[in-house]
Structure formats: structure tokens, C-alpha cells
Amino acid sequence: MPDLSSVFPRIRQLAVMLVLASVALAPEASARGRYYNDSGSIETHHPNWMSWVPDSTRLSVLSLPGTHDTMAYQSHGGSLTQTQSLDLRKQLDAGVRALDIRCRHIANSFTIHHGVVYLHVNFDDVLRTTIQFLNANPSETVVMRVKKEHTEENVTRSFAETYLAYRNNPAYQPYIWTGSHVPSLGEVRGRIVILDDFGGGAFGIPWGSLNLQDDWTVSTLFDIGNKWNKVRAHLDRTNTGASSTLFVNFLSGASALAHPFSVAGGHSAMGIRGVNDYAIDHLVAGHNQRAGILFMDFPGAGLIDAILALNFRLLSSTTWLPEDFNVIFRNTAHTIGGNAEQRWHGIRSFVNNAAPGRYWHVMALKRAWGAWMTHQGNYYQSDSMDDYTHIAFPTNSVTAVVGKGTLESYVRSQLGSLSGGAGERAVALHGRLSARFPFQRWAVVVKQSPGGLSNWAYSDYGRGAHLSSGDYTYAVQTHSASEGVYLHEHGNFEGNVLRLTSSVNALGDLGFNDVASSLTVVGPYRATLCEHVNLTGRCTTTTQSVSDIEMLPNGPWNDRVSSVAISR
């Protein structure tokens, strides 16, 4: 795994400004396509997502998208036996890392079957494709269940002996891990980890050692809900189970009256939800922090991404989130509906569960709106869904040094001179705030009527201003104040504000002599306030913010500070 420690912290310190001025709305995407996919392509791409997972992570801690009957992507046996729509390489490129490979032992070799149905691929095809993928993406590992399927025919050796012939083939041997314990990711990058469902654990991790849910019988479409309840119960067990245990959960199910595509995708005309639909809602809502291996039929882009999203929890909260999160955010956002307030709650739950320990700013906005945001960290924006756009970005802190009353007064004074549409107004107001208070980061959203929680909702951290004028409502949010010592003209951190990072012998030179009434300390600073210039007269020292400097010892101090000594 490449060492990115020298890159990410440096990038994270940059303040990035983006204009989102009444953007043209993208075409609406199919919500069903986010959890169920029966086409030959898919709208997600994560060929090397494991590259950002720490080497020390045990395989059992990861949340892995998997496919049930992986190679049954063509209808050789009809809809009862087809379980996928993507070929193996497309599955791997999409982010799938767990394969369900079912081998018939025939003529001392393995053909791939789904029950009695030959899928017109052989074990050599599976291994070659997987190895080609690993050569192109050496940071990855692929977990492969190998199961004995159907009846043997024309063989002169055991199933295990034929497996060993494959494993010992010089073309395959370097890529097949031969351990039987649950490894760390660093042990198995670039290799295939076998789940041994044929030899009792002699050739990989024993299938019998897994904590497994595979109740695959779904008698009718009306029993899909029961199947989901079993999946959900096992997700609950996975969430609280021992981190050393490998949990495996099959979302798949079938019968003569409920074919795999219906169990996975549901039946919209009958108002029946599929297991995949239930699963994506459950995962995006933040009910799980670990999902184990999920073997699925016809998984959609959003469902794959909702599983992958849980792995970001393994990163430090100070780490810049990898690019994979951008695709994941866009795809999972499609499962969240309702009005702006409900969407805001949904997005907030998702990002805080997927990447906790960050100061997430979340917005749900219905047209027409415009915004200019200064942020420190990643920025995410969904496609349009029912005219709504979802936005999320983390910041280093939510520290504010401009008083709420002072901020509202300043914003109100600017509204009458703003013009243009929502986007132009947001840009102009952001520029004025940044010029007036350059030590503070700003997010400005302007919403054209109608407003209200049906049409927009946003995170309100700390100090902000929410004002209306005419057809426009303005939401101003302040965050990530620069380090320093701040003197405020009035108590409770209100009024004019002066930022200091070094000693000042005469505050009168800065227009602040005998003015300070409160003080904010941001960062590891010590401030010594003195009654007279040149640090003379009575003095007092603090390392903490003080809403009323009269509370400091040796007072009175209000409007009596003429010089300040600053040290770190």
C-alpha cells in the first residue's frame, strides 16, 4: 500500500472554494437501478478500493460486496438459475470482492455449474480472469468460495486432488493464498483467499468456521419479507459479533414461484419490495457499522456502494477521504427520499456512520438555489432527484469567532445591495463576508422562494445567520476560524473583533485601545492582557476564552486593556 501520509495532510489544509450557482439539474436516475441491476453494465467503478484500507485490517472486519452464484450471468438455465447480469471482470471492477464459485468435478477438471446447469465457463476461466484483475490491481484481494456442485463424472481422483492440481499450476500458484486462518489484508493483497467448502478446511478458511446465514428457500413472492428478516437478523449479529469471526450473509433466495430476479428486485406492480431494496435502505440509514461478506443476486450500484461505504470507518478521521467516496455518495443518495428535512436527516445519518469523527455539513436543497462554500476537505454533491440536490462536506472544525448578533447585523446590512439570481447573490455575499472577516471560513446558501423544510434544510453548526429579504432567504454558516487570540468589543463575543497572533504594545495603533470586553482563544495560545501600553500596569493571563473579561483576576478589565502579550 503506498504511503499517502505526506500527501493527504498537506491537501487537507487547503481551503477549496466551489461555486454551485443554480446549477443545471442532471437527468433523474432510476432509484430501482441503485439496488438492483439486470443490465450488462453498472454505474459504479471501484477496481482498487482496498488500496486505502490499512494493511493491518483483518478480513473479518471488512464489509465485502459479494455475488451469489457468481458465474450465472447468462440465462443458460432460464430465469430460475440466472443470478447475475455482469461478467466476472465487470463485477470485480465494480467493487465486488467475494465470489461464489460452484465446481462440478468432471473428467478430472472443474466446470462451473448452478445446480444441474452448466454455465459454459470452467474453473480455468475464473482463475485467469481473477488473476488478470489482481495483476492490474495488486492492492486488492478476492475471497473465493469453492463449492462442490452437482454430480461427479468420469473422474479418477478426488475433488480435493483436482483442486490441488489447479492450485499447484505455476500460472495460478503464486496468486492462491494457502492459509486457513482469517488473514490481515496486508497478508493477502494481490492474492485469492479460498473459502474451503469441499475439503473441510484443508485448502483455505473452513466453510464450517464461518458465522453463516444461507436460508435460500423463498417459497413465493410474499415470503420475500421473511427472507429479509433473516438477512437483517444476521446483519445485527455481524454488527456486534467478534471482530475475529468471518460473517457471511446470503441475500439470495429462490423457488419455482419466486425466481432470483424477483427475490432481489421485488415486484413493483404487486407492491412487493425485493431483498436488495430492503438492504440498501437499512445500510444507508446507518444501522450497521460492519456487514461482513454479503452474497447477492443482481446487486445495483447503490447497494454495492452502501456496503463499501462502511469500510471508510477504518480510516482515521483526519484522513482525506479517497475518491471512491464521491461515487459512493452519489449512488447511495438515490435511496433517500421525502422532503428536504427528511433527506437532510438521511444524508446526515449516512455520512456520520460511514465516516465518523468529522464535522459534516449537510444540505438538501430544492431548486432554485445557489451557494458558494469555502471548505477544508472533501466535497460531495448528488445528482438531482425529484428536483432535490444533496450536499455534504467536512471541515476541520466548527469554531466561530464572529458573534451571532454581529454576524446577523452585518449580513442584514448587505442584503439590500445584492442583485441577480440566487447564485450571483451567494457569490457576492460570500466575497463580502470573506473580506470583512478573513480569519473565518464561510458557507453561503441562497434559496429563492419557496423556502421551508419542504424545500431546503441544512446543518446549523454554532453561529450562523438565517435572514430573508424579498423572494430570497440567506443561510450563512461560519466555521474553521484561524488560530489566534481574538479581542471582542462587547461581552459574549459580540461587536467588532480583532485577531492577534503576536504581541501588541499599543492597541491604540490598531484602533482597539480600551475596547476589549470578551476574548476568544483558538489554538495553543496564551494571552496576557495589560492595563497600559508596553505591557505595563496591572496584567492578567489566560489560555481560555472568556465571555466577560471582568471575570479575569486583578480587574476591573472591561474596556481597560491597552497592550497584549501573545505566546504559544
Give the key terms.
alpha/beta, five-stranded antiparallel beta sheet, disordered N terminus, 28 strands, 14 helices, about 575 residues
What do the pLDDT scores average to?
A: 92
The amount of beta strand, in percent, is 25-35%
Poorly predicted residue ranges = 1-29
Q: Helical residue percent?
A: 10-25%
Q: Can you characterise this structure?
A:
The protein is α/β, with parallel strands linked by helices. It is built from 14 helices and 28 strands. Strand 7, helix 6 (185-188) and strand 8 (192-197) form a beta-alpha-beta unit. The chain starts with 7 loop residues before the first helix and ends with a strand. The model is unreliable at 1-29 (pLDDT under 50).
Summarize the structure.
By secondary structure, the protein is an alpha/beta fold.
Topology record:
Layout: H1 8-12, E1 16-21, H2 32-35, E2 64-67, H3 88-94, E3 98-106, E4 109-114, E5 117-122, H4 123-136, E6 142-148, H5 159-167, E7 176-177, H6 185-188, E8 192-197, E9 205-206, E10 211-213, H7 224-240, E11 247-250, H8 260-265, E12 266-267, E13 272-273, H9 275-284, E14 293-296, H10 301-309, H11 324-332, H12 340-354, E15 359-366, E16 369-375, E17 380-381, E18 388-395, H13 404-415, H14 422-436, E19 441-448, E20 456-458, E21 464-469, E22 472-479, E23 484-488, E24 497-500, E25 518-522, E26 526-532, E27 536-542, E28 563-567
Parallel strand pairs: 2-3, 2-14, 3-6, 6-8, 7-8, 8-9, 10-11, 11-14
Antiparallel strand pairs: 1-16, 3-4, 4-5, 12-13, 15-18, 15-20, 16-19, 17-18, 19-22, 21-22, 23-24, 23-25, 26-27, 26-28
Helix pairs in contact: 3-4, 7-9, 9-10, 10-11
